[in-house]
Amino acid sequence: MPLLFVLVWGQVSFISFCALVRYVVDISPPAFLKANMKSLCVPPRTTAHAENLVLKCLTKLLEFIDKLIFPLHTDPNMVNAGDMNGSGNLMDFLDEPFPDVGTYEDFHTIDWLREKSRDTDRHRKITSKSKESIWEFIKSLLDAWSGWVVMLLIGLLAGTLAGVIDLAVDWMTDLKEGVCLSAFWYSHEQCCWTSNETTFDDRDKCPQWQKWSELLVSQSEGASAYILNYFLYIIWALCFAFLAVSLVRVFAPYACGSGIPEIKTILSGFIIRGYLGKWTLLIKTVTLVLVVSSGLSLGKEGPLVHVACCCGNFFSSLFSKYSKNEGKRREVLSAAAAAGVSVAFGAPIGGVLFSLEEVSYYFPLKTLWRSFFAALVAAFTLRSINPFGNSRLVLFYVEYHTPWYMAELFPFILLGVFGGLWGTLFIRCNIAWCRRRKTTRLGKYPVLEVIVITAITAIIAYPNPYTRRSTSELISELFNDCGALESSQLCDYINDPNMTRPVDDIPDRPAGPGVYSAMWQLALALVFKIVITIFTFGMKIPSGLFIPSMAVGAIAGRMVGIGVEQLAYHHHDWIIFRNWCRPGADCVTPGLYAMVGAAACLGGVTRMTVSLVVIMFELTGGLEYIVPLMAAAVTSKWVADAFGKEGIYEAHIHLNGYPFLDVKDEFTHRTLATDVMRPRRGEAPLSVLTQDSMTVEDVETLIKETDYNGFPVVVSRDSERLIGFAQRRELILAIKNARQRQDGVVSNSIVYFTEDPPEVPPNSPHPLKLRRILNLSPFTVTDHTPMETVVDIFRKLGLRQCLVTRSGRLLGIITKKDVLRHMAQMANQDPESIMFN
Q: Which residue among 165, 459, 602, 666 is least enclosed by CB atoms within 10 Å?
């Protein structure tokens, strides 16, 4: 607890420092002695007003010191240059930035090229100003280090939240079966740690821990005690699930699901306001504990990526470098995703590779370094909390004492085939069920659906000890090797009384009745997990897929491993066992098969390869078993890809209609840009702006009558020679600000996008110059450009739209939505399934 207090206090201190840095970086000192000093003597009206006055005083004091130290840098002409070029001319008022320019509306795509250009201009400006004074130099240093500060804060908060979630899940899962009398906040394992009366044979039993039947009716055995524990197990599960779905439905609807499909879409440039907000962070953290504790067939690893990205969005909003640039913000979110996987699996390197391979759309080298740092800090924080009590980052750490042999590659590949088939089956069935939920009345009752699925899960899971326990504990038991000290049914082998082998080198033995009983229970658990996971994933609660998929593979792998082990024991003279499995030798490790099966099933569902293998060996510590993991992962992907290229996350992206251009998809159709561009034959002509012949009223009418995100600007409607492109939102903001700040701007004012104002009659109203918001270099292609090239351009440059020209004359426009609609049409799918623009 003291360590947790120190971590929380440290984060509060860092957040305070972060806010201070934000103020220093964002506030530009006013011109020297420009403001009237009398304004500082006005008594403060509120606390915020008082803070503002203090901040102004400190700013002026620093400026005064700076002027004394660097008098040569005080050039009045340089200070007033902006005023002379900007507000000095009413027609050029937009040469100064105004609020909300450069922002995007909800459910729209960002312009990656513009965001990159804006960041380059900002960096160039900071670099040039850093040579003017020590104040600007300090600001440039803080700006350079702000990225690393954000990564540090993300790692600290993500690691702390993951540790708290792990501890809370451990306690609430055990709460369904009993309570610790000495300290009710202790889980079963923690309660028995503190007991001096616990024996090794009955390590899970201690006087301080009592089941509900013992506490309520003073009975631990018998039918009545079993029925009471059964009933309370179901009640607790229903309470947890109902509370979770109610919190999500009322406070944060975006907190449902895995979050990874939406994170991928956001990182590709799509705007979903509120998806990474503070309420989403809070509700998802709380409800994630509830749903995992309820016993539903879902995990917390995928949602932890969403939680970490919420942390990244929160801290990036404290710095204008990231809050005012959507492209830079997505670099932070990519690193946050890596931190999320780092704390979810205890795999910092695997987290970085997961962000690179599976989630990120734009991943420059600088983001790779910062992702590594964020994952490192998050893993260190989680290790400091030590939620599993084993002084390690992971719950599934294993130590096998037997190497694998070449002959075992065949069952490993078979597990890969099973993983690919399971992945295909799950994706198709789950997408069919989710589509039915969206298109029928079933989707109108999310609370009822969660309650029904939870009740079915609890009723079926309780009688089977392998489904009653948490999925993480199940996987941990399936991964473990059977040593002399293990008491699990899976280790109930018939021992040779004359055996004198060391404890860690136990030879293969014939299976006892406990092993055969466990095999039947595992077979039932496998069928149950396969079926129930299909209906659970996608409900209106936080739901991860990593752990359920790994559980399916681990169960199948353990069963295959026990089968191979018994086959090698009873038929060691077969040619496949003769060279490496002698009688009395420890040949086969069933836990290794469980680990390989878990990797195969997870790969079949998500189609991960490199990051999956790294996560698995970091998750288990099995570094020498990389080759079996690689063989299973590659085989699983090959088999699954034979039935469809989409992983589960890409399938949900397409189901929800998100405008996501997957770099893995191939476009091989021989169509041209002219086949996709709008307007097409029979459609109304393209809505355009002219460079100097439209009035404010004309522009406002065009905006009101259309819903386009932007308008090409041409010389005239006759020539259609392209000048640039103006965004709809920026046109609205520019005209609104002009009416408020500039006298003489009326509906009849001429709007011009040229450098020089047009010739107007003497008594005409002032013209309005909007050149500042004009994109003078929009991306263009010719009408004969192959769509394969156009699609590649949209993917790699992250374009919102592309203009189609012929010899400089505007013909049409292709938007990202047009590209997605065309790709769906070429794949014989409904082109109107793209719901967002």
A: 666
- Three-class SS of residue 203? coil
Q: What is the DSSP letter of 319?
A: S
The two structure tokens encoding residue 777: 């270099």
Q: What share of the chain is helix, strand, coil (3-state, %, to 5)?
A: 60, 5, 30
CA distance 709 to 726: 9
Phi/psi at 806 (nearest 5 deg)? -140, 115
Nearest Cα residue to 292 out of 300, 303, 304: 300
Q: Tell me the average pLDDT across 412-433.
A: 95
In whole angstroms, what is the distance from residue 837 CA to residue 825 CA? Answer: 17
- Mean pLDDT value of segment 566-571: 82
Find residue 544's DSSP bridge partners: 299
Cα(420)–Cα(600) distance, rounded to whole angstroms?
7
- Render 212-260 in DSSP notation, one character per residue: HHHHHHS-SSSHHHHHHHHHHHHHHHHHHHHHHHHHHHHH-GGG-B-SH
Query: Strand, coil or helix: what is 34?
Result: coil
Report whether 334 contacts 355 (CB < 8 A): yes
CB-based contacts of 825, cutoff 8 Å, min separation 6: 831
- Give the total residue count for the chain: 837
Greatest Cα pair distance, the chain, in angstroms, is 114
Tell me: the pLDDT tens digits for 628-646?
Answer: 999 999 999 999 999 988 8
CA distances (Å), origin 612, targets 341, 395, 607: 11, 17, 9
Give the up-direction half-sphere exposure of residue 506: CA atoms within 13 A in the CB hemisphere.
Answer: 19
Please state, in angstroms and as integers, the Cα–Cα distance from residue 638 to each residue in 359, 417, 530, 557, following that order: 21, 8, 21, 19
DSSP β-bridge partners for residue 801: 815
Q: Which residues is 804 bridged to in the sheet?
A: 781, 812
Tokens 């900002």, located at residue: 122
The residues with which 257 forms a beta bridge, in sequence order, are 542
- Let me know: does 800 contact 817? Beta carbons within 8 Å: no
- Cα 453 to Cα 457, 459, 532, 578, distances in angstroms: 6, 10, 8, 50
Instruction: Dump pLDDT digits (tens) for 203-258.
Output: 567 788 888 888 888 887 888 999 999 999 999 999 999 999 999 999 999 999 99
What is the pTM (predicted TM-score) of this model?
0.83
Q: Please choose, from the candidates 658, 710, 699, the residue with its C-alpha nearest in 3D space to the C-alpha of residue 104.
A: 710
Q: How far is CA 675 from CA 120, 189, 266, 708, in A?
A: 36, 66, 29, 20
